[in-house]
Amino acid sequence: MANQAQRTEMPDITATSRFKPRGEPVIHGINTIGLWSLYIKEVRRFLKVQTQTIWGPAVSTLLFLVIFDVALGRAGREVLGVPFPTFIAPGLIVMAMMQNAFANASFSLLAGKIQGTIIDLLMPPLSVGELMAGIVAAGITRAVMVGAAMTVAVYFYPDVTLTVSHLWAIVWFSLMGSAMLSLFGLLTSIWAEKFDHNAAITTLIVAPLALLSGTFYTIDNLSGVFQAISRANPFFYVISGFRYGFIGESDIGEGSRAVVQAAIGLGVFNLILAVIVYLVLKSGWKIKS
């Protein structure tokens, strides 16, 4: 009877325990600490080699400006009412941003798969959306840093005048372009099994789309077929919209209404691309298998 009384008087340990019952999630909502940690990890990764990831791309892109200015910008040539160097400078800036956003996002999961450290990204208590958001946000951050470095370099280049005409266009198209390539880079990182696959996508898809997007010319100079192909290229709208933010003119269409429509279209396109990347990442294809 005494033992029975002691058992009845003992407190219920499970009732007073600080731990959640088995199977009940501990983290509710967004894991902000985990998301922030992943983001900082990705940012620190490319900042450790910032000479290669930030300043190197800015210098190489600046060389494009020098070469094309010398080759095509002589005799006071003007495009869309501005000197040729001023015309191509915004396109070069946002093109460098997009390419570096892709390079950053396409490295994360691929390096983990090759080095066998992919478990470091899959084991932490991060949802699929949080994992995707951290990698994409880091890619956008690198793109913004490259864009800032490139803008400073171009600002002191002779014959280039960068004046803000429409700030919203500069911010929106730069972020949409960086987000688009970060998402595409993450999708490439999921698919690729070695660095050669990543390099093939960069060489055969990203670089041609960037160079054939109206960076160095207006698509009005193209024939009907090639002009239609250019209008199917999302890079064209990013570059032309970003340029519109500086010079107030674009070859997207007549007036600001066409630019606004392009801005909305890019937002919808990125939303669809984000859903596709989310579903592929959630399936575990080529990651968990």
TrEMBL record:
One cellular component (GO) term of this entry: ATP-binding cassette (ABC) transporter complex
GO molecular function: ABC-type transporter activity
Name this protein carries in UniProt: Transport permease protein
Superkingdom to which the source organism belongs: Bacteria
Any single Pfam family the record assigns to this protein: ABC2_membrane
Keywords, ordered alphabetically: Cell membrane, Membrane, Transmembrane, Transmembrane helix, Transport
Predominant localisation class: membrane
InterPro entries: ABC-2_transport_permease, ABC2_TM, ABC2_TM_bact-type, ABC_2_transport
Membrane topology (UniProt): Multi-pass membrane protein
Protein localization: Cell inner membrane; Membrane
Domain ABC transmembrane type-2: 48-284
Secretion signal span: none
Keyword RNA-binding: no
Family from the record: Belongs to the ABC-2 integral membrane protein family.
PANTHER family linked to this entry: INNER MEMBRANE TRANSPORT PERMEASE YADH-RELATED (PTHR43332), TRANSPORT PERMEASE PROTEIN (PTHR43332:SF1)
Chain segments annotated as transmembrane: 54-75, 87-110, 131-157, 169-192, 199-219, 258-281
